[in-house]
Amino acid sequence: MNAIVDMSKPGIQLICAKDPIAKERLENGLCPFCGTSCNPGIFRDELSIKESRISGLCQSCQDEVFKEE
Ligand SMILES: [Zn+2]
Asked: Does residue 22 lie within any of the structural domains?
């Protein structure tokens, strides 16, 4: 179990309930969207690392999700 996110969080549990592949990725410390390994080197700054611990998203998926219109 290499999860970097808190698997007991309701939001994470919701994702896991909907998507078994995302669950497996989260449990292995991978981005639930694209499967990229979320090692600290891929993140731009502390804020992105912090976000990855909440959502499990890698840098590029965070950019997609949080990009400003
Ligand atoms: Zn990703």
From this structure: yes
C-alpha of residue 58 to centroid of ligand 1, in Å? 4
CA 47/CA 28 separation, integer angstroms: 21
pTM, two decimals, is 0.87
| Any domain includes 2 | no
8 CA from centroid of ligand 1 (Å): 20
Pick from 48, 30, 46: which is nearest to 38 by CA?
30
The residue segments making up the domain with residue 25 are 10-66
User: Tell me: the pLDDT tens digits for 12-65?
Assistant: 999 999 999 999 999 999 999 999 999 889 999 999 999 999 999 999 999 999
**How far does the centroid of ligand 1 lie from the alpha carbon of residue 3, in Å?**
15
